[in-house]
Amino acid sequence: MDEIVPEAVRGDTPHDGGVPVAPGAVLGYGGDPEHGQPTIYDVARAAGVSIASVSRVLNGRRNPLPDTRERVERAVADLGFIPDGAARALSVRIKEVVGVVIRRPEVTLSADGIFEDEETSLQFPDLINRGIEVAAQRRDYNLLVSSVGLGHDDTRRIFGLARKSDGLILHDRVLDEDQVGRLGRQVPVVTLAGVPMPGTVNVSSDNRAGMAELASHLVRDHGYRTLAYLGGHPDSPDNLARHAAFAGQVSADGARFVTGPAWQGNYTAAGGARVIENLLASGDSLPQAIACANDQTALGVVYALVRHGINVPGGVAVTGFDDIPVARHLHPQLTTVRQPITDLGAIAFETLYSMIADVARARADVILPTRLVRRESCGCPPNPTPLSVRQP
What we know:
The protein is an alpha/beta fold and about 400 residues long.
């Protein structure tokens, strides 16, 4: 069954620093036939079908349903849509395939090898990809998923994937900025937690607000006076934003922020455990609270602390970011900053879909809201809500 195309949700200007969007929102863009030439996307919206269905009717492919053909042809007539060369080329080019590129972690094992299978359990990117997949299925699109490793030049492979796709969704920093810009001149590109730039659209969460709220909670509500941030990838925009917001708020609230090259976990549980092991082995004193760049890192931190007989939160408070499912089942339950992970994927796909439909229209970057989830690992009382129930 063909999908109804949603109304547009966009900012006043492209790349204006982000447009807050409620979790679960779906984005769509299209021209206005009353103020310019109607586009192929206007036809899809008027007919109440997907852009892929319009393409099939215009190009005579795959025997579209009679009802679909009638609705599209009626919309074409009502709008006065004339497929010019570009529109005809679009209908011929559409592959109904979107490429997704994820960043594959390099896992550093802890001493007992407890996290050796971590790279096969990438909870955060898996949840994003699930959001992309569900949204793609609604539009009759398929996904081509590829991974790239840290420190490897996979540029040629990513550009090859672009030739097989109608557009690409790039996870955190799989290409540098120049490469993303060059790719965006060839196909529509949406980045996740990337750097906003002309020619592409970036979808991310409000890292700064979430981390500032977390820092204030730890300092003002719990009274912690020494706090550290255990970071993700050094070149990750999300990591840099979270670090800056947390450090700034801790200092503004009059507490001491602990930092340095030793506090680098690279978004992995093994990395978080390694940081704690190294600090304890060096004889350095631990801060009263450790805010981790993501929940995956926090799992390793909690594991290492408990392994050395340090109670969480009695000895050291630990927090995360993301609210992946395991955060609610960890003991103690993990205080974290929740971002709408699957919505990031769904909105990334819908944004890319709209770009494929109307490549000429400017679009704004998207910022989704975050919120603090208070649980036991920071010193809050146990949550009486059943673990199987996730609150909105």
